[in-house]
């Protein structure tokens, strides 16, 4: 009887060990999927595919990029928040998903706490551009022009609650001018209307706007990052041009896994991404896209950063009367 009981306990223990979370040494045993919350061809997509290849080389397993854009990045966030926490499904999200949507949306099917951050590897600045037919050559001149414009000048964004929308609202408050918000469903149409003089200004992604700036189809007044962009060295940061030293209005790219992913797997992913994204060739490719490579902080520091961005942008959403509007 005692022998039978011993064998039963041994079998149960072996079963528990078999179902225990995988160790870093055993991971990965199959393909990994990275869900990208923006469309194929975007800067986020291009970078994700670069480091997916590097992760695949390091792990000896396929790393597949799956694009799931739409619904202000909530589609991708929802999918991965509900995925098994086993390290085989990751997601790339931005400040929209983790810092703006929790205040903007009346109800979300995910919470920022549903994720564990792996890498905060890119900051994505915006460039304040205007219709080049306007006489303003500097931010101060544009603000003065806007103060006296009747009817008010208009500006484009990709929608209420977007970082671009809130960045312009910040500019209006800081510089004391008025401008009418014109939300667009897609950036290309807003750019066409901006070049055609149908709207006066917009904050646009650097990678999209830089070729148009160099061709003279748009005029750049300021960048939203804290530092100048190497590809546009003559365009000042908004903080410098507006005298707002603490201002930084950027989006960012963060790779995350579902919460409760085993710590050994989290640690291995963190270490591999740290190594990959610190490589000079990777940083050069990121900069060439008009983005700013970021030396990812620790996991706890990333959690704190998400919270600080949530407080900053959540407060702006409330000031604009947009809380729970989506």
Tell me about this structure.
The chain is an alpha/beta fold and 326 residues long. It is built from twelve helices and eleven strands. The chain folds into two domains: 166 residues, 3-Layer(aba) Sandwich (D-Maltodextrin-Binding Protein, domain 2), CATH 3.40.190; 117 residues, D-Maltodextrin-Binding Protein, domain 2 (3-Layer(aba) Sandwich), CATH 3.40.190.10. Helices cover 44% and strands 18% of the residues. Strand 1, helix 2 and strand 2 form a beta-alpha-beta unit. Helix 2 packs across helix 10 and helix 4 crosses helix 12. The longest helix is centred in the C-terminal third of the chain and has 21 residues. The N and C termini lie far apart (65 Å). The N terminus is likely disordered.
Helices and strands in order:
Layout: H1 2-18, E1 32-36, H2 43-59, E2 63-67, H3 74-81, E3 89-93, H4 95-104, E4 115-124, E5 126-130, H5 139-148, E6 153-157, H6 163-175, E7 179-183, H7 187-195, E8 201-205, H8 206-214, E9 219-223, H9 238-242, E10 251-258, H10 263-278, H11 280-288, E11 292-293, H12 299-319
Helix pairs in contact: 2-10, 4-12
